[in-house]
Each structure stands twice: as C-alpha cells, then as structure tokens.
Design goal:
about 200 residues; elongated
Length: about 200
C-alpha cells in the first residue's frame, strides 16, 4: 500500500526524471493495483522515446505496459512494426497483449498481411496457434488483401497445408460483414469431397 501511494503521488507531482524509478517499481509490482499505478504515473511523466525504449526491457510486465502506453494519448504512436517482436514474444502475456492491440487496429490489416501469411504457414500443424489467429481474421475481414489471402489459400490447387485449410474453412462462417467471395464458395465442393476437410467445410 505504501509503494502504491508513493507511485500515485508521483503521478500528480513527480518529474520526468522519476520515470526510471517508476519502471523499476513496475518491474517489481506485487499486484495489479501497484502495476496500474506505475503505468498511470508513467503516462503522466514519461516522454515517448523513453516509453518506446521500454519495448526492449528485460521484464515482460514492462514490455507489455509499454505497448499499452504507446497505444494511448498522449503518445498514440504504436505501429504494426512495434508489434512484430511482441507477437513472437516467449512470454504469453506479452504475446496476448500484442494480439489484442492488433485486433483493435483494423487499419493495419495490409501491414499485418505478410505476418498472417507466415503464421498460417508455420503454424499449420498447431491447432492452438491457428485458433489464436481467428480474432485477427475476424477483425480484418473487410480488408480486400485479407480476403484475397483467404481466397488464394483455399483455392483447390493451392499448396496450402491441410491444417491451415481446415482452419480457414472453419473461419468462414464468422466472416459476415460482406458477402462470401466467389472463390470461397468454389472451394467448398473439393473440401466436401476430402475426408480430412469435410467437417470444417460443413461448418
């Protein structure tokens, strides 16, 4: 409680020079309340270059906080390029935070497309990893490039791994903001004829 009270006081009357001490406190925060207090104080006191530097901090909690800080005023400078590292972070909480932030920026669909393509290729045999992409495809479903990627990978002659193809077939019923692409419908016949894809195709 004392550490939290000091942190909250710094947010009100501290100086920019206190930012490194706030980061140290954040790294050692004992509970969510202390963590939130440190983040609020950094939002008030730190400048953008300092916060951006925290993306490479050794402590996952600090890296995650930096992502959220850069995504909100007075900074609001987070870019898709800032997420490429966190999206592959070994810490599950950092990884989850990066995906959640990406879901909230459908204007980054074109930037994220090469990364999504790579994920479908490298995670084709890992159902859990593929399922984690579902929310991103739903968030980006109106983007022409994303829809084109789905069409390309579902094409009957495409060398798409079975796992990725099944994932996309399962995903189609969730893509409801626009009419299905003709290529998606054309992919259904061959999928229904394939025992490995019949259940995903039936939705």
């Amino acid at each position: 409680p004392v550490r939290r009270a000091v942190t909250e006081a710094l947010a009100l009357c501290g100086a920019r020079s206190h930012a490194p001490r706030l980061v140290a406190a954040l790294a050692k925060a004992g509970n969510d309340f202390e963590e939130h207090a440190c983040i609020a104080a950094l939002l008030s006191l730190a400048d953008e270059p300092f916060v951006r530097g925290l993306l490479a901090h050794e402590t996952p909690r600090v890296r995650r906080a930096a992502l959220h800080l850069l995504d909100q005023p007075p900074f609001a400078t987070l870019r898709f390029a800032d997420l490429t590292g966190p999206l592959g972070d070994s810490d599950a909480n950092v990884n989850r935070a990066a995906r959640h932030l990406l879901e909230g920026h459908n204007e980054w669909a074109a930037d994220a497309l090469p990364w999504l393509r790579q994920q479908l290729a490298t995670s084709a045999s890992e159902a859990g990893s593929l399922n984690a992409l579902s929310a991103l495809f739903v968030a980006f479903q109106s983007d022409a490039g994303i829809r084109g990627l789905i069409s390309e990978l579902l094409a009957p002659g495409a060398p798409t791994p079975v796992g990725a193809r099944a994932f996309l077939l399962n995903l189609l019923p969730s893509l409801t903001t626009k009419k299905p692409e003709a290529a998606w419908l054309q992919a259904m016949g061959p999928a229904l004829a394939d025992p490995a894809l019949r259940i995903p195709a039936l939705g």
